[in-house]
Amino acid sequence: MRALQKSVFAVAVAAVLGVAQVAYACTGIMLAGSDGSVVRARTMEWGAFDIEGAISIVPPGYEMSSIMPDGSTGASWTVQYGFVGATGLGRLLTTDGVNTAGLSSGIFYLPGFAEYPEFDPALADQSLSPTDFVNYVLANFATVEEVRSAMEDLRIVNVVEPSLGFAAPVHYFVADPTGERLVIEVVDQEVHLHEAPLGVITNAPSYDWHMTNLRNYLNLSATELPQRTVAETDFSPLGSGSGMIGLPGDFTPPSRFVRAVAFSQSARQTTGGYDTVREAFRILDNFNVPAHGVTHNADDHGGLVLSSTQFTSAVDMGARQFFYHTQHNRRVRMVDLNDVDFDALGGEPVTRMMDQERVEDIETLTFGN
Fold first, then answer.
1. The model scores a pTM over 0.85
2. What is the C-alpha separation between 225 and 220, in angstroms, rounded?
3. Helix (H) or strand (E) holding 209
4. In whole angstroms, what is the distance from residue 55 CA to residue 57 CA?
5. Nearest Cα to 351, choosing from 93, 63, 81, 103?
6. Mind listing the pLDDT tens digit for each residue in 257-300?
7. 220/30: higher pLDDT
């Protein structure tokens, strides 16, 4: 009987880990430039299927709402701050974005830990589905403090995401141009707010666990280990990087969290603006997940033959600029909210695919012509 219980437990654990492996493996970081600018950046891994990444502009005045499990309307809101977001699945499912106030927010997978309360019709006007939360935040708030205050009344409830067949198990990162940041989780049907002082986020387990786990890596340093003499024999490091010996290199969320902290905390000092964005992209290159890198079954990658990292994005919150590149085209593209003529949108969102053509933008150099 004990062996059977262990077997059932192993299967259950494998199922949870399997969802995490072939689904989101997203990694988020924050960097600050010497001019005071703040950049939040992230990878978007989804190995289960093509999310058909797009860029959407949502204008002020647009009416939005969240649909509840019984088909009724939950929270409804009018967009106060126009925003740009990375969306997918052919609808306004915003996974990451920034609004005209500079507030930025993103969604990250949290399988096995996110658990939402059931919908209560008496609290419909306070209720959001998990995948509507980023839209609500970007549309309504200018600062992290405003979001923090709003969480006293908001309810993120158990609403099935059609593309998954169950409620999306996620947590959220919110940041503003001052550098304030907040991780929001719903665990055991209760909202938990984490200050996120290091500006890093990955996936499961819950955020407080990741912060505790960092204590196992206090030895990591960007400083080289010194030469040591043992038994009258001198030993020196074999090469650069000896201070990072012990840095975990696998794709699991705990290991990525540790690496993201190590790389972001040891990043070069940037001047701000695109220099900081560029450094964020450079760091996040270390977290690209190959399509076959997290599953033994070649059919589990949903046709994503290039990468499970479908796009990487960065937000310069002070400048209100959203940058990204994709697995199909590494050229960096940017949307500047300062240049968006919201009045010309006719009060409706506008969406474009991230890649107009899924081909690499390659410059050919010629010689002897």
1. yes
2. 10
3. helix 207-213
4. 7
5. 93
6. 999 999 999 999 999 999 999 999 999 999 988 776 655 454 55
7. 30
Ramachandran category for residue 220: left, alpha or beta (phi over 0 → left; psi -120 to 50 → alpha): beta
Torsion angle in degrees (nearest 10) through CA of 195, 131, 336, 64: -120
Lookup: tokens for 324? 């990204």
Instruction: Give CA–CA dist 355/86, Å, rounded.
Output: 12
Nearest to 60 by CA among 100, 90, 92, 87: 100
C-alpha closest to that of 100 among 367, 326, 319, 302: 319
* Predicted confidence band of residue 2 (pLDDT cuts 50, 70, 90): very low
Instruction: Tell me which residue of 236, 224, 143, 219 sits closest to 182, measured CA to CA.
Output: 143
Cis peptide before 205 (omega within 30 of 0): yes
DSSP secondary structure letters along 100-152: TT--EEEEEE-TTTB--PPP-GGGGGGEE-GGGHHHHHHHH-SSHHHHHHHTT
Q: Give 359's contacts (C-beta < 8 A, 6+ positions apart).
A: 328, 329
Average confidence (pLDDT) over 11-39: 69
Residue 10: strand, helix, or coil: helix
Q: In a 10 Å sphere around its CB, with 0-12 CB exposed, 13-18 middle and 19+ buried, how is residue 239 labelled?
A: exposed
For the chain, percent of residues with pLDDT exceeding 70: 88
In angstroms, rounded to a whole number, what is the distance separating the alpha carbons of residues 94 and 42? 14
Per-chain mean pLDDT for the chain: 89
Q: How many helices (H) and strands (E) does the chain have?
A: 6, 19
Please give the structure tokens belonging to residue 28. Answer: 């988020």
Q: Which two tokens stand for residue 360?
A: 């690499």
Q: Is the model's pLDDT at 332 over the cut of 90?
A: yes
Structure confidence at residue 4 (pLDDT): 40
Could you tell me which residues come within 8 angstroms of residue 107 by beta carbon, excluding any fewer than 6 positions away? 94, 95, 96, 131, 133, 134, 168, 170, 171, 172
